[in-house]
């Protein structure tokens, strides 16, 4: 992943207007990111993982299903994580060799309360206002509406400083308000926004569940939310596209961030590779 995918190589897609919208109001929507066939493939692949899990706290959602490490659970999830159109947009904000930080499926069930408004890169303790250290993606597998738990956004909040962020927390950090704009988009669309944007899942006041996915990306010099090295077996990573391997951290950020004993981390995917530090005869516990 070199962070420099030229727009000319992506037939019919120009990332520039999307980058401009993200800089202006704080998010953009890419429609038809998943066509009907890929939507059906997504639903079929996620089905075995749904039906049993619930959020562990109000933020995750007591009546919300979450499936973590989505990228490691099927080819359709791999492909959407490194789609060239998305990579071109992300390259407008993040440095080359940026990383996939989190990959989840989220199914909000009827009756779920609104999620607390929040930002996605607040755990990186760098004072605001500042450029985003991460970029988030929310993908609609079911259409997002104001009634079924579609995400709400606060336009322009990606530029806020600490004082403005604290003020909105005091007024209302849970659910929609006059400040928020509901994110409404058809199935197959994705919303892309900086990690500094204030947003939150809306309440599901409908009688049907709302299925979505989220992928979050970060600068290559930051620690990721999910530890994909431990979560996804090397055998599975070995079969993935090189671009996705890079997103999972099998890459180098100059001059040498991410090395494995002075070697490129992709070498660990070679058949027969063993760690360079091994037990030698005579070693004792």
What does this structure look like?
It is a single chain. By secondary structure, the chain is an alpha+beta fold. The protein has one domain (7-269): Sandwich (Jelly Rolls), CATH 2.60.120.620. 21% of the residues lie in helices and 15% in strands. The protein has helices at 16-24, 36-46, 75-81, 84-90, 162-171, 228-231, 234-238, 242-247; strands at 28-30, 64-67, 99-108, 134-140, 152-153, 181-182, 190-194, 199-200, 210-218. The N and C termini lie far apart (41 Å).
> How many beta strands in the DSSP annotation?
9
Low-confidence stretches: 1-8
| Oligomerization state | single chain
Query: Please, how many helices?
Result: 8
Give the domain tally.
1
What CATH calls the topology is Jelly Rolls
Give the overall silhouette.
globular
Strand-and-helix sequence, N→C? HEHEHHEEEHEEEEHHH
Radius of gyration: 20 Å
Task: Trace the largest sheet across and list its strands.
Answer: 1-7-4-9-3-2
Mean pLDDT over all positions: 89
Instruction: Report the portion of residues in β strands.
Output: 15-25%
CATH architecture: Sandwich
The portion of residues assigned to helices is 10-25%
| CATH uppermost class | Mainly Beta
Structural class: alpha+beta
N/C terminus separation: 41 Å
Q: Please summarize the sheet with the most strands.
A: 6 strands, antiparallel
CATH superfamily: q2cbj1_9rhob like domain
């Amino acid at each position: 992943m070199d962070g420099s995918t030229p727009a000319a190589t992506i037939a019919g897609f120009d990332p520039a207007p999307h980058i401009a919208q993200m800089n202006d109001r704080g998010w953009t929507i890419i429609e038809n990111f998943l066509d009907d066939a890929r939507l059906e493939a997504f639903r079929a692949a996620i089905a075995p993982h749904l039906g049993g899990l619930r959020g562990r706290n109000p933020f995750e959602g007591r009546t919300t299903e979450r499936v973590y490490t989505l990228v490691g659970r099927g080819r359709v999830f791999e492909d959407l994580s490194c789609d060239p159109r998305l990579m071109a947009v992300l390259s407008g904000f993040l440095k080359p060799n940026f990383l996939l930080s989190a990959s989840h499926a989220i199914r909000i069930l009827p009756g779920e309360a609104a999620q607390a408004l929040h930002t996605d890169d607040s755990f990186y303790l760098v004072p605001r206002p500042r450029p985003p250290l991460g970029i988030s993606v929310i993908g609609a597998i079911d259409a997002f509406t104001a009634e079924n738990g579609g995400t709400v956004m606060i336009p322009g909040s990606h530029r806020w400083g600490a004082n403005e962020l604290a003020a909105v927390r005091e007024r209302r950090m849970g659910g929609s308000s006059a400040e928020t704009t509901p994110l409404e988009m058809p199935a197959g669309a994705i919303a892309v926004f900086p990690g500094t944007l204030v947003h939150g899942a809306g309440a599901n006041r409908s009688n049907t569940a709302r299925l979505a996915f989220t992928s979050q990306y970060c600068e290559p010099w930051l620690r990721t939310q999910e530890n994909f090295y431990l979560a996804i077996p090397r055998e599975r990573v070995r079969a993935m596209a090189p671009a996705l391997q890079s997103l999972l951290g099998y890459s180098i950020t100059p001059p040498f961030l991410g090395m494995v004993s002075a070697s490129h981390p992709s070498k660990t995917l070679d058949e027969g590779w063993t760690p360079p530090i091994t037990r030698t005869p005579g070693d004792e516990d």
